[in-house]
Amino acid sequence: MSRLTRIGAAMAAISSVLVLAAAVQNAPGDRSGGAGTPAPRGASSPATGAPAQSADAPATMDTFDEGMERAGRGFKALRRSALSAATRTADLAAIQSLQSGLLMAKGAASALPMSPNAEKKFADDKAAYETALRRDLAQTLRQAIVVEAAMLDGSSESAKAAVAKLGEMQEHGHTLFQNNE
Ligand code: HEM
Hints:
This protein is about 70% helix and about 0% strand. By secondary structure, the chain is mostly helical. Helix 3 (about 60-80) runs antiparallel to helix 4 and helix 4 (about 90-105) runs antiparallel to helix 6. The N and C termini lie far apart (about 35 Å).
């Protein structure tokens, strides 16, 4: 793939995250990450989770798994973190990994076969299944942006609460959509 195509793919990935971030900011009752949120100074370009790799990957189960693994590494680090000013640089790298992994998995969601629990719920309504899967992944990604907004606001307690909610969303997604065998 040419350099220009890669840059284009990276821009596309970044703009999808920005659209989701805008949706979070506009959500009624949500005051986290308002217009005055400062830029993450001194924490640019963390080595983990480059979005360019997620945007141009083929929609296969390998891509889905790779995205989830990346999200898992980021999430594990966040759960263990104090989410304080002292851990900010590492936290921003971890949240980047989590978001780009979820975005990558979402891009390959069409490759995921129905789990037994999804079959019980959706039977042969494949369109409803695909919509629900994509919606869950998008909402989880949005929640990961809520976590980041709390970090950028310097609000450790809000960030911890948002991480806890993310854990519930992960559990819900895995219970319904994951094949366990
Ligand atoms: C905080 C959010 C999440 C994290 C950190 C996360 C992390 C992971 C990890 C580490 C794996 C194992 C990957 C592997 O063994 O290859 C996995 C698998 C999986 N995740 Fe997630 N996940 C999250 C949210 C979700 C959501 C919201 C959904 C669905 C809506 C989902 C669907 C799945 C499925 C279907 C698999 C199994 C894929 C397979 O069969 O190989 N995950 N996830």
